[in-house]
UniProtKB/TrEMBL annotation:
CDD domains for this protein: crotonase-like
Lineage, opening ranks: Bacteria, Bacillati, Actinomycetota, Actinomycetes, Streptosporangiales
Name of the protein this chain belongs to: Enoyl-CoA hydratase
InterPro entries, per the entry: ClpP/crotonase-like_dom_sf (IPR029045), Enoyl-CoA_hydra/iso (IPR001753)
Top-rank taxon, per record: Bacteria
Amino acid sequence: MDQILYDVEDRVAVITLNRPEVANAQTMELLDDLDAAWSRAAADDEVRVIVLKGNGKHFSSGHDLKGGGPAPDKITLEHIYAVEARRYLEHTLRWRNVPKPSIAAVQGKCIAGGLMLCWPCDLIVAAENAQFSDPVVHMGIGGVEYHGHTWELGPRKAKEILFTGRPITADEAEKVGMVNRVVPLDELEATAMELAGQIAQMHPFALRQAKRAVNQTLDVQGFYAAIQSVFDIHQTGHGNALSDVGFPVLLRHQGMKDKLKSQ
């Protein structure tokens, strides 16, 4: 089964995470295929808007900790840094800067690495049952590789979800401006597609320039530099997780992801 599905409907490219049996957990293959789908949509002159969604009950449970990587005793910080710089940081920034509007449609759980998929999108439509969390402080790591937390949530709410690991609801996310709309679950896809259709009627060059204006304003305020610098801070967390005490904590945390499969 393809881990990523791709379709174009009325000038809207629909990219679908397609691992519902594991709550759309992210393998390296999935992330590479996802990057290829983003690039395909960006290069297609017929596509004016991109919609990202997930099959199944949950948008994404984050990184697949059973994804077949090297054995724990073979992993080095150098290896982790190289893999994450490419597949998390570079991919995510590239998606954020695709010169076309993008919309994430989020339902159920959006955990840790799942935030790295929806935050680069320009707009987020969330189902009423959506929950957003980054519980990796429990693993001895200070947050996911793409530190959008402060920008998306504001500093105090960002600290709260990191310090406690608790999820925030779709309504909470809308109140702080992280989410554009909250809708009933059975209206999620239709709402995202309707919004995409409205945007697709606009002039593509004007859309590109409007997106560039907002993103450049954020970059002047320090967004791009902060993402880069906090990525290095994040890697010190992996150094902690590779220690004798830290790494077993990381493995035990897999239990949270296993629990999602039965929900």
